[in-house]
Amino acid sequence: MPTLEFWYEYASTYSYLSVMRIEEAARVARVALRWRPFLLGPIFNAQGWDTSPFNLFPEKGAYMWRDMDRLCQARGLPFRPPSPFPQNGLYAARLTLLGAEEGWAPRFSRAVFTAQFAHGLQLANKQALGNSLEALGLDSKALLARIDEPDVKSALKAQTEQAQGLGIFGAPSFVTEDGELFWGDDRLEQALLWAKGEG
Amino acid sequence: MPTLEFWYEYASTYSYLSVMRIEEAARVARVALRWRPFLLGPIFNAQGWDTSPFNLFPEKGAYMWRDMDRLCQARGLPFRPPSPFPQNGLYAARLTLLGAEEGWAPRFSRAVFTAQFAHGLQLANKQALGNSLEALGLDSKALLARIDEPDVKSALKAQTEQAQGLGIFGAPSFVTEDGELFWGDDRLEQALLWAKGEG
Known about the structure:
Chain A is an alpha+beta fold. Helices cover about 55% and strands about 10% of the residues of chain A.
């Protein structure tokens, strides 16, 4: 079965759209997924940006919020803009790396994205993330105790550097086994076709 | 019949995709079109950019060229990156305003975009634009004589300011009668549905 890498950032609004539908879309397409959370912050910093381009460029930001409203409504997804925006996805991304080892990364990602965009979950709040872990039947105390460990920190750093090395500049992004990069939730179908050699 | 405004810029790669398919898509959807060329330069300048973001942000630029390659191949469109990029769309946009009065704006737009992206037409070259006019059976001498007239200059300026007033920050963009803004060739279908009240 071909594999598609799914690169996403917890603070990213458009990543929410893909997180909520990619597992089903990949199942139908018979493509395996690798869930690869990373941080956009360092990548934006390298472009001279100190926050989201949606904050830096107000017209683009206003459009994004309206676009997300329309798309979430069409897909039956709840959507409330997080405050502040962007949230800090650092802890959630590190936890997801632990989840990738143990097989619960996709479930955790969907739970945290939903909590962020439906219920105002603060991503920087460890206790709130702990609640999301508990709701999935996971040991939040043991997991939260690991998120500041050097190997977990360096694993996320390495993953973000790998994203940069692949030419990734935004989220969500999809990378096929032959290195083809697709950017944006609206490229998911095209990425799945390409992964199967039907692009 | 509902109407959709089609805002595009001659230097814009993704505008090429929409210019080549929007008339047929709108015909099938039973939506009337208003072709509204404008200039992105002043809008980019207002954001502090002195050239295309695809030049300012190299990863984004590299992605765009590859994305355009893939999309044009899938759609059977020729595609060669213009050199230099971006081209200066000023004269082509002014001519299109004259064409809007006389009903040849869509044909002229398709001809000029194709010449730019298939055959390396230099948009700043008045004689080359004249050849495109002649090929459509138009009086290039009379039309080129008008493009530096004050009323033509101010009409394009007003159109660009109107784009800015609508919140437009990129091209192609689509605006419905109720003021809904859609950005990007991949939003064309959604914009047509919205125009019909089915969004």
